[in-house]
Amino acid sequence: MTSPLPTSVPSDGTLRIDFVPTIVTRSAPKAATELLAAGAQELAGYVTGDGFNPSGEQATVTDERIATTQTFEQPGRKTKSLSVTYVHNPDDPTNNEAYLTLEEGTTGFIVTRYGVPRGQTYAAGDIVDVWPIKAGEPLKQWNGANSVHTVTQRLFVVGDVVIDAVAAA
Asked: Nearest-CA neighbor of 41 among 17, 12, 15, 25?
C-alpha cells in the first residue's frame, strides 16, 4: 500500500501572531471578546521572516530497576521558550506597535494561528496556540547596510502553553 500524498499549505502569509492582554480559558479563548478585544495587537506584520522562534525541550526521567540490566526512560518536565525579532521604527509610533506593545514586563498572551490567511479575522472554531508570556528586555539590533532596524526579545513563558486550543464564540 502506498502512502497518501497530503495537500500542503503554503506558509507565506498564513501565520497570524497576536498579543492578547487577557484570556480567561486558554483552551478556549473567545474570538470576539478576547482575541479581537481592545488592547489586542496583531504582530505578524512586524515579525521578520525568521523572527518567530518557539522552542521546547523535554527532560528525561531515568527509571532504573534492580531486576534488569537496562535503564528505562520516562518523559520528564517540559520547557517551552519563545523569542521574537521584529522591525523597529522609533520615529513613527503607528509603525512601531510591536515595540510599544511588548514593553519589558508586559504580561499577556501570544496567540498564533497557522494555515489560514493572516488577514482573516479570528472566528469560533479556529485552532490556535496560546502562550502566556511576560515580555523580557527588547534589544535593538544593528543589521548593517541594506537592512532594516530590528529588535530581538525574549518572551518568558509564565504558564502552561496550550497547543491546538479551539477558539470559542
From this structure: 17
